[in-house]
Amino acid sequence: MASSLRLNSTLKLNDGLSIPRLGLGVYLTQSADAIKHALQFGYRHIDTAQWYENEEVVGEGFKASGMKREDVWITTKIWDTNHGYNQTTKTLDESLKKAGLDFFDLVLIHSPNPGKEKRLETYRALIDAKKQGKIKSAGVSNYGVHHIKELLAQFPNDPPSINQIEISPFFQRKDIVTECRKHNIALQAYSPLGKGAFVDRPELHKIGEKYKKSPAQVLIRWSLQQDFIVLPKSSNEERIKANADLYDFELSKQDIDTLNAMETGKGVTWDPTKAP
């Protein structure tokens, strides 16, 4: 069964912008060529962060691709040690300079860890940066339900456009997903493959064989069919291409149910969503 989704499919955010549904996660990537090849292959969304220490590499890869700035969505994130109004403003300017960009499409607060006062100051700085044209959209990452409620209480007219969290069939975060959707906050899924911890599950292989797809492709497709924005990570050119080969099949309801039943309630990476 063919899919109505395409590599260039987008999702409309609560601020009116449209973000590509599939992005390239670049944690640990230090290859501008990998980013260039991904963009030339058809990716239109790159997800970096201050903590990744590769904003400069992302900028180099983007420039080498020959793409127009308005055709590529580039996200970065404010790291924990850069929280606070002044520090956020300062380091955002530094990130723009490193990447060689005039603006970021999206800037996220990487985690709520530094505490309530700091994270609210940081978000205020992002709202002001948006007014100044330095960023197009402001969001959060690794926010739990109580963090979302806290933010909306403080900024009722400026809700975050996105909450980027670990999501996969093995860790579905239904409480956070429900809270975000209640307020039209889009979900971005990182670690959508569960870091490969579950790829040997026979039911996953059975689904893959049915569609002639790898377990990774099945898992990324699951995220897309949940209406998540999904961020598979790779610096390998062939894997980058394979991770985008998702649009000639659609998982059946039965297969979705099988994948949903793989929930473990545990993640494979850090989990700041419980931070006070």
From TrEMBL:
What CDD domains does the annotation carry?
AKR_AKR1-5-like
Molecular-function annotations in GO: oxidoreductase activity
Record domain NADP-dependent oxidoreductase: where: 30-262
Task: Tell me which residues this entry annotates as catalytic.
Answer: 52 (proton donor)
- What Pfam families has UniProt attached to this entry? Aldo_ket_red
Keyword Zinc-finger in the entry? The reply is no
Instruction: Spell out the InterPro entries in the cross-references.
Output: AKR, Aldo/ket_reductase_CS, NAD(P)_OxRdtase_dom_sf, NADP_OxRdtase_dom
Which residues are tagged with the site Lowers pKa of active site Tyr?
A: 77
Against SUPFAM superfamilies, the record matches this protein to: NAD(P)-linked oxidoreductase
Q: Which residues are recorded as binding substrate?
A: 110
Of which family is this protein a member? Belongs to the aldo/keto reductase family.
- What is this protein identified as? Aldo/keto reductase
Species annotation:
Meira miltonrushii
- Write the lineage as a comma-separated list: Eukaryota, Fungi, Dikarya, Basidiomycota, Ustilaginomycotina
